[in-house]
Write a structure and sequence with these properties.
It is built from ten helices and 14 strands. With about 280 residues, it is of the alpha/beta class. The chain has a single domain, classed as Carbamate kinase. The chain has an eight-stranded mixed beta sheet with strand order 5-8-2-1-11-13-14-12, with helices on both faces. α3 packs across α5. It starts with a helix and ends with a strand.
Length: about 280
């Protein structure tokens, strides 16, 4: 490494200092989407970013999805999925696969990556300690749930012990049913319960785009509603912005929608002046 390289590293650290101070002891909830997990190298890079966050005093909480992995396992096991209005019907057979993949394979992969990077991660699902209580979203969709209550006590305990919780979006119903929860929805509910400083929704798009296709780096809740009414925010971005608005209403300070495939996206968002996506605030 040359002197110039070392100087660049020192300059970067110096520029990051105000942001390191700004986020000291802050809770940052990160939704890691299935597409954003990428390769093993990408997972390892994400894990190092999370460990760095914990090392400098931030309290990261990870909620993950896993749609592509669930699809692959369903196909491998010969379980046929039915879709209604574009949404997967989660029957009993599908739910077994969903829980196995989310709370098993994917959750432990993330935990292992963080621990390998030097962190202390703990794998959970929303069923642990009755963390996430759900109601059925729509009878036609089967075992798909919408969070009605999040008990953050277990998470507070883990964060006090400097652990990194990694949560699979599986919850419990009033009659002890198991429900599959949309990952963004689960992340928003957890972030609201923790009154998080930031909710980062890592996805496979660069952020919220305006009518000309340019990413809007800063938005208010009112602007999001106006863009949605005008049809500028449409398709798969609508549930993400709805999650953002609900999280803000629950007490989250700001929500960022960003491309999780970009190397070090989380660090770019937290520790640089230009950020790495679309930041949404209440006002």
């Amino acid at each position: 490494m040359t002197t110039r390289d070392n100087a660049a590293i020192a300059r970067t650290l110096n520029e990051a200092l105000p942001y390191l101070t700004r986020y000291d002891d802050a809770v940052v909830v990160i939704k890691l989407g299935g597409h954003a997990m990428g390769s093993e190298e990408g997972m390892a890079s994400f894990a190092r970013d999370v460990v760095l966050m914990r090392t400098v005093g931030i309290n990261p909480v990870i909620i993950h999805g896993g749609g592509p992995m669930i699809n692959a396992m369903l196909e491998r096991l010969g379980v046929t999925s039915e879709f209604r209005r574009g949404k997967r019907v989660t029957d009993a057979a599908t739910l077994q696969v969903v829980e196995m993949v989310l709370a098993g394979e994917i959750n432990k992969r993330i935990v292992q990556a963080i621990n390998t990077a030097g962190g202390r991660a703990v794998g959970l699902s929303g069923k642990d300690a009755d963390m996430i209580t759900c109601k059925q979203t729509d009878p036609e969709l089967g075992f798909v749930g919408t969070p009605t209550e999040v008990d953050p006590r277990l998470l507070h305990t883990l964060l006090r012990d400097e652990m990194i919780p990694v949560i699979a979006p599986i919850g419990t119903g009033a009659q002890d049913e198991t429900y599959n929860i949309n990952g963004d929805t689960a992340a928003g509910a957890v972030a609201g319960a923790l009154k998080a400083d930031r909710l980062l929704l890592l996805t496979d798009v660069s952020g919220v785009k305006d009518a000309s296709g340019e990413v809007v780096t800063a938005l208010t809740a009112t602007q999001v509603l106006e863009m949605t009414a005008a049809g500028v925010i449409a398709g798969g971005m609508i549930p993400k912005t709805e999650t953002a608005l609900e999280a803000l209403d629950a007490g989250v300070r700001a929500v960022v929608i960003l491309d999780g495939r970009v190397p070090n996206a989380v660090l770019l968002e937290l520790f640089t002046s230009h950020g790495a996506g679309s930041l949404i605030r209440k006002a």
